[in-house]
Amino acid sequence: MKIIATKICPHTEVEIWHSLEVHLDEARRNKIGKCLQKKQQQRMIIGDILLRYALQQEFGSAPGLLRIGYGPYGKPWLYERPEVFFNISHAGEWVAVALGSREVGIDVEIQGPRFAKLADCLLSPSELRDFQSIQDQDTFLCRRWVMKESFVKMIGLGLGCPLTSVSFVMISHQDAFTVYEEQGYFCRVYELASSYPLAVSCADYRFPDQVTILPFERLLHWALVASPLV
């Protein structure tokens, strides 16, 4: 498994975004264009570019146009490389991609007070009991959120799977285990940056020790100069 992330420079010139966007296929441009927030559009563009970079680094894939298909609940897959499983997440200025040989899900969030009201719709009964004795409840809730979001993204159900139906048991400070429909799954939580927990879920217990951080300027150089996308 490979987990790679980059932090978008907020001062990136408009011309650079236009140069990156033209290399997306029409379907992807249309999907991104439906987002009303410019920053969200930028995160989605970088998600595609970062995926191309990771595929080339891991498998030697040509960085040309990627055709991304979507399952009934929005889970993405690759037309040209159906044997490669991936997932993308972004929050704030961070974008992250997970690649694996089995289904994988990833989620990153900005820790904040908004999670304080989500305990009842996020935690299973056993998790709620643990929650009552936790001193740092904000951190606990945000970590559980990214864990469960990564899990439901992995199984391809998204919000079609109630988060309270998934119950994680911590097997270390960083790793957790759950059983869903009689199959076991693992989840690992990383600290991408201060107040940015990131979680990855997979059936394999083969997580990298750390997330690979790719400098944003290096990704842009690869995309626009070193390895043109066309």
Describe the structure.
By secondary structure, this protein is of the alpha+beta class. The chain has 7 helices and 11 strands. The strands form 3 sheets. Strands 6-10-9-8-7 form a 5-stranded antiparallel β-sheet, covered by helices on one side. A hairpin with a 2-residue loop joins strand 8 and strand 9 (183-193). It is globular and about 55 Å long. The mean pLDDT is 89.
Please outline the helices and strands.
Layout: E1 2-7, H1 14-21, H2 26-33, H3 38-59, E2 68-70, E3 76-78, E4 85-91, E5 94-100, E6 104-108, H4 119-122, H5 125-132, H6 137-154, E7 169-170, E8 175-180, E9 183-193, E10 196-202, E11 212-213, H7 216-226
Parallel strand pairs: 1-11
Antiparallel strand pairs: 1-5, 2-3, 4-5, 6-10, 7-8, 8-9, 9-10
Q: Which terms summarize this structure?
A:
230 residues, alpha+beta, 5-stranded antiparallel sheet, 4-stranded mixed sheet
Short description:
It contains seven helices and eleven strands.
- Largest beta-sheet characterization: 5 strands, antiparallel
The SS-based structural class is alpha+beta
Q: Into which percentage range does the β-strand content fall? A: 25-35%
Biggest sheet: strand arrangement = 6-10-9-8-7
Mean pLDDT: 89
Poorly predicted runs of 5 or more residues: none
Radius of gyration, taken over Cα atoms and rounded to an integer in Å: 18 Å
Order of helices and strands: EHHHEEEEEHHHEEEEEH
Q: How much helix is in the residues?
A: 25-40%
List the total number of helices.
Answer: 7
